[in-house]
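User: Study the shape:
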Amino acid sequence: MKSLYIRFANIFSHDQDIFFITTYLPLKEEMFLYLKFGQLPQIHPSPVPVKINPDKNKRKWLVKGESLNQFESFARSMIPEQIPTVYCEGFLQLKEQAENLSWPKNPKLIWTSCSHSADDVFKAWAADKVEAGAPLAIGQIGGHYGIGKWSFAESNEVAISDRYFTWGWSDPSQPKVKPVGQFKKKLPLGIDHSKQFRALLVTCIVPRLSYWMYSIVVAGQWLDYFNDQCVFVQNLSDSIRNVLTVRLHSNDYGWDQIDRWKDKFPSLTFDPGIDDIDDLIRHTRIYIATYNATTFLETFTMDVPTVIF
């Protein structure tokens, strides 16, 4: 049915249409917004980027400039090695993919809250349209934005967009930043949390090497973070610890989270981070957030009593 609707809606599309993709708005809200712009609601599935094997001969170059220390020399030598193949060996094929899409040729507006970060085909398409004059709006993807001390992703997204929609914060030095509210519309579950009996502590995980530049624990600093959680749990009374669930992240990155926790607290209840977190929240009297990200922003709007530790 989805495929049939996409084909039907394409019949009524125009080259000057507005373009929404992964806005994070609920489907009903996004469809209504299309109608407000006088357009038939569209769905835009994005193709998988071209897969190309690396070619050493195409990476025998250096970033120009003078290196003032050994680290800068090292970084310049590594950049040609680290660029994803889709932007080096496969760039012409990527551009061809973007040019052959059935998306608007001259969109009046492009809005995304995720694809600018996670979708290489969209990036190639949007870059071409923005250079031709199309305005780009980016929506905040989750937590830390506007709260952390510094974030490369936030700085970059504000810089490349014509409007930046946030979950509520503003920046006097950036008039393009517009506080809108939380797009995901996380709503209360209809639960009286004061009558529930469990506590829920949600943990984070990061790769074992530095991966993304923002003010959060990096690489081996995760061990300090883990030890902080252990101190916190150790200082809970037995009655609270007995009803505590520790939710782990589904991606372990080789940290052996579950074994570390069980070494310290063999009788604790753990959730592997695979199931819908709402199922845990339904039985939660108090929610404990342990890192500066999205989770506590969602529990606020879900009306769950929350402690930020």
About this structure: The chain has a mean pLDDT of 95.
